[in-house]
Design brief:
372 residues; 2 domains; 47% helix; alpha/beta; Rossmann fold; 12 strands
């Protein structure tokens, strides 16, 4: 009988759900006999909890990013226990029974969580005795924050050797396995694509640098600063702007005028971002865990801007550490960084090679093979 895997995510940002879908897609290719299902934990918890949980995070990073960053750091540094741990235990129990009842109804052989809300609810002392199935965790950032820690987790799948070291060194964690797989991204990122053919497909000029500006998502940061910096560079440049589901931003950017040295391509939501990542020379983007992993798989250096205080700072720091990214400290220095990349093609080439070297494009396959 085929194994049954239940993947639990949470739609707080797009990355956790994207990781879950990547795992489902990978399983369909290499374990077609297995039963793999992905569910958003917030749908299990009800509309009120879903609205509260999502909006509280979005409001925090948009309205008070400095507070969110300080809160994130405080909890990380308090991970040894005390009031922080007790508070987390209380919060976990709020949704524990609903999530546990759902899992028991599904009766999987294994539960894999791509968001800590799901794993912490299931592993809560409030319901753990009634849920016998092993629960494993996929950490979707390049840092293992206290939020992800739970002493009853079966297996941790992490992005880097350093992340594995952090988990293994934690006094209260005793997972059966800690595997360095990378962060799961869509299987298509593991395939080779012709950069030359894609540049032709998107009508990018020969010999002219192309920058991909990922300005969708929650809308954190001033998009105007990014666009102003890009268009203000006195160089020939092809610019691809992707606004995602932000229709107001799309409408606004389609009216932007550039000088004769620039070519603007404004796009909304796209399903072939891997093609644009392959075609372009570098990107300007938030450093989400999934976006970072996708860019690395395409050999695409990232100028991490704007950076959400907290988890994205660690992701951006990782890009800089491996030589595949730049993190401008201020909006005023963004334009200089763009100009520097254009004027130093040899350095940009080194960054592309560094990105490829750090990439783990088969992460989703490796995780599925470890569980099924």
């Amino acid at each position: 009988m085929a194994k049954k895997l239940l993947i639990l995510s949470a739609s707080v940002g797009g990355g956790h759900n994207s990781a879950s879908q990547a795992l489902v897609d990978a399983a369909a290719q290499i374990r077609p006999d297995a039963e793999v299902e992905w569910v958003d934990t917030l749908d299990i918890c009800g509309k009120a909890m879903k609205k509260f949980y999502r909006q509280s995070y979005v409001e925090a990073i948009n309205r008070t990013p400095a507070f969110w960053g300080a809160f994130y750091k405080l909890l990380d540094e308090s991970s040894v226990g005390g009031k922080t741990t007790k508070l987390a235990d209380v919060l976990d129990t709020l949704n524990a029974k609903k999530v546990a009842d759902f899992v028991k109804q599904k009766n999987p052989d294994h539960v894999l969580c791509t968001h800590f809300m799901a794993s912490n609810s299931l592993l809560s002392h409030f319901v753990r005795k009634s849920v016998k199935v092993p629960v494993s965790v996929v950490v979707t950032d390049y840092h293992v924050h206290f939020f992800w820690f739970h002493k009853l987790a079966d297996t941790y799948f992490v992005a880097t050797d350093e992340c594995a070291w952090v988990v293994n060194r934690h006094k209260k964690l005793r997972p059966k396995r800690v595997l360095v797989t990378g962060i799961p991204i869509k299987p298509v990122f593991s395939k080779r694509h012709s950069r030359k053919a894609l540049r032709k497909k998107f009508r990018l000029r020969d010999g002219v640098p192309a920058v991909l500006v990922m300005c969708g998502g929650f809308g954190f940061g001033d998009v105007n600063e990014t666009i102003k910096a890009v268009l203000g560079v006195e160089r020939k440049l092809d610019v691809i702007l992707i606004t995602g589901n932000n229709k107001k931003l799309y409408s606004k950017l389609t009216k932007v005028k550039a000088d004769s040295r620039k070519r603007l391509h404004v796009l909304g939501f796209v399903t072939n971002v891997y093609e644009y990542m392959t075609a372009c020379d570098f990107a300007i983007s938030k450093a989400g865990g999934l976006t970072t992993s996708e860019a690395l798989a395409c050999g695409l250096p990232i100028v991490a801007f704007p950076v959400i205080p907290g988890q994205e700072e660690y992701n951006a720091n990782y890009l800089v550490e491996v030589g595949a990214g730049i993190k401008p400290k201020y909006a005023t220095s963004l334009q200089y960084k763009i100009k520097w990349l254009i004027d130093n093609p040899n350095e940009l080439s080194k960054m592309r090679k560094a990105a490829k070297a750090a990439a783990k494009p088969r992460a989703a396959f490796d995780i599925i093979e470890a569980l099924l």
